[in-house]
């Protein structure tokens, strides 16, 4: 009887430990029929005219007690065209490979991850940072920042406001040139309004800066941003979204005022369920003074799991 009670106590204690830990499999399956200017129509799952990149990953967390948690995320891109790994970086888990500690102090994330510049742009970008986002295409690294070998700290939310600070040490410079990079974002999101500002810069290099916001009034949302990437290019983004019944419509414009280049997006999304969305996207890719404009179209379905 005593041995039985000890065994039951051990099982109960083990169950309590397991109850405090969790591991989740998640991902995105996205496939579209894409027609890019100058190219033959093709099936695509991680391309420019997909809503998102097809991928899978695992994430987990453990409750360490006292409000402190440890967690991790490993994420890998994949192609639905042929089943191959679709690498965002040099490794198999090139989309994400990080661990974090979180608690009342905020969140500290270490490894390969999305960064403060990305989260700042996601605050006001209306497509949900789709692959065909004209803001990302037009202004590039100003909205993406660095991704590998990073440290990122996020403060707790204070009335809807939080600060994100990212840094990459010189020894982790992927180019091997001993360049450190810093990335600072402030985000305010409360009720119908969201606003963000970002500054990111490599040591000894040129800074990138963007500030933007959005405001929702019933079924309408308006968004705008000013973007100043490193280099000559700079400009602005303007967009509007409307919810017509179950259908979401987005019109976005990204204008580089230095190169006289305007990109335009028209997106239509229809939710087939909470996890599955059908979409149509048309992108007019401006070439400025260098070439004729290009028209690209994608018709696809995205499923989140």
UniProtKB/TrEMBL annotation:
InterPro entries, from UniProt? Gram-neg_bact_OMP, Gram_neg_porin_domain, Porin_dom_sf
* GO MF term (any one): porin activity
Identify its membrane topology class: Multi-pass membrane protein
Protein's cellular compartments: Cell outer membrane
Q: Which residues form the Porin domain?
A: 7-304
Instruction: Offer one example of a GO biological process linked to this entry.
Output: monoatomic ion transport
CDD domains from the entry?
Answer: gram_neg_porins
The region annotated as signal peptide is: 1-19
Keywords linked to the UniProt accession:
Cell outer membrane, Ion transport, Membrane, Porin, Signal, Transmembrane, Transmembrane beta strand, Transport
Q: Which GO terms describe its cellular component?
A: cell outer membrane; pore complex
User: Which Pfam families does the record associate with it?
Assistant: Porin_4
Give the record's subunit note: Homotrimer.
This protein is called what?
Answer: Porin domain-containing protein
What species does this protein belong to? Hydrogenophaga crassostreae
- Lineage of this protein's species? Bacteria, Pseudomonadati, Pseudomonadota, Betaproteobacteria, Burkholderiales
